[in-house]
Structure formats: structure tokens, C-alpha cells
Write a structure and sequence with these properties.
The protein is mainly beta. It has strands at about 5, 10, 20-25, 35-40, 45-50, 55-60, 65-70, 75-80, 90-95, 110-115. The protein contains no helices and 10 strands.
């Protein structure tokens, strides 16, 4: 059974940075297009950024120029580098396959941007 484990979240001031990690057991992530998603309180889960197995990336307009998705296939891990964080980035962040989330959702990692 595939298990996705997200980590790296925390409390950060506006303008700060965080690096999220997504590690998988039971599957080889390098074979799949992976995505980082987020869900803010009272809102639907949304895609933040995605990366293909070849390293082609996409991201939503609101994070372009601030967030960078990457992957280390040797470590079976996907990353999300988040810079210039804003209060509206506050959410629980998850990883899964994209465009269709094929795996059970992990517990996510909380990102809170506040002064």
C-alpha cells in the first residue's frame, strides 16, 4: 500500500520561506506526474504545482515566481520550495499524483503565514 508523508510545514512570517517534502513508500514516484495541493479552512483542495516524470513543471498563477516544485527520483521524494510567503498561502499542504490523485491522501503538513 502506498503511503505519502508530507513534512516541512510550520509557522512563518510574511515574506518568509519554507521547503516542503513528500516522501513515498510502496511506490516509485519517478514514474508519475506528482502534484502539491493545498486546502485552506472552508475551501476546496486545490492544485498548487505539478511536475512530470521528465521534470516539466506547472503552477497556479498565484504562486508563480514564488514556489518551485522539484523532485529527487533517487530519494523518491518531491519538494516544494516556497518563498515570499503570504498570509493567503496558509493551508494544509498535501502531495499526490496529478491530475488524478490516485493514492490515499496523507496527513498533510500545516503551513501558517502570520506575523
Amino acid at each position: 500500500q502506498v503511503q505519502l508523508v508530507e513534512s516541512g510545514g510550520g509557522l512563518v512570517q510574511p515574506g518568509g520561506s519554507l521547503r516542503l517534502s513528500c516522501a513515498a513508500s510502496g511506490s516509485i514516484l519517478s514514474s508519475y506526474t506528482m502534484g502539491w495541493y493545498r486546502q485552506a479552512p472552508g475551501k476546496q483542495r486545490e492544485l498548487v504545482a505539478g511536475i512530470t516524470s521528465e521534470g516539466i513543471t506547472i503552477s497556479r498563477d498565484s504562486v508563480k515566481g514564488r514556489f518551485t516544485i522539484s523532485r529527487d527520483n533517487a530519494k523518491n521524494t518531491v519538494y516544494l520550495q516556497m518563498n515570499s510567503l503570504k498570509p493567503e498561502d496558509t493551508a494544509v499542504y498535501y502531495c499526490n499524483t496529478y491530475p488524478v490523485p490516485n493514492y490515499y491522501w496523507g496527513q498533510g503538513t500545516q503551513v501558517t503565514v502570520s506575523s
